[in-house]
What we know:
single chain, alpha+beta, YojJ-like (1, 2 domains, seven-stranded mixed β-sheet
Amino acid sequence: MIDLLQAILSTVEGLGARNVLDILIIAFIFYWLLVLLKGTTAMSLLRGIATVFIVAYILGYLFQLTMLNWLLKNSLPALLIVIPVLFQPELRRALERIGRTSFTAGVTSSPIEQVIANVCAAASLLADRRCGALLVLERETGLQDYADSGVLLDASPSVELIMSVFYPNSPLHDGAMILRDFRVAAASCVLPLSENASAIQSLGTRHRAAIGITERTDSISVVVSEETGAISVCSNGRIVKNLDEARLRRVLSALFHVSADTTLTGRRVPFWARRG
Length: 276
């Protein structure tokens, strides 16, 4: 143990500015990957792999298991092949996110403002026509597992697209639409139902799913009742009912910490998104 501490101290003393920068870059990459995997089954898989290697290393070190130590030392090349295969969806999503990054987006305004305006306008139109709908807006917790249960789209969240997806008897009408990174990630997704008896009294399956996803993640769900046309918002396992378009926009803007009166271009919300 003393030898190990001395080796660590000698290594730290020999670090220069270039080495510190190198370590910080690698640490940032690992942190970014962990944030990307947060809330997905890939994180559980990663924890399982890390646990197996840690336990194997401890056993090999304590009992001097020659074969186990040799296997651990020579497993790195195999991991370089296995990890991209196991985490292919998450790595693809990371590269897509980098490719969609705009360096000028912060100069104009946040795209989430346009998404909120479109969601509110579409929800109002769907409510007027008594078309049931369920939209889930992803935040920090990843929803890839639920998106995989539906039909992947990767499309712009326009009012027309949202309306067409939830139009009665359309192929994607049943299930939820998931919005991620200012895009429609998937539609017709299956969500977990809430089991909170006090929260689901007199509520249908669509509303139970809207509450259930917010109980398990930090996402926000917007649900339109097919029977009454009422618009509701769910967050943290709670539901706010009977919203009109203006109130829905204010609630979503507050939850996402953006202005309720601007859009992607920084102008006032257009008249078609300000009814009510």
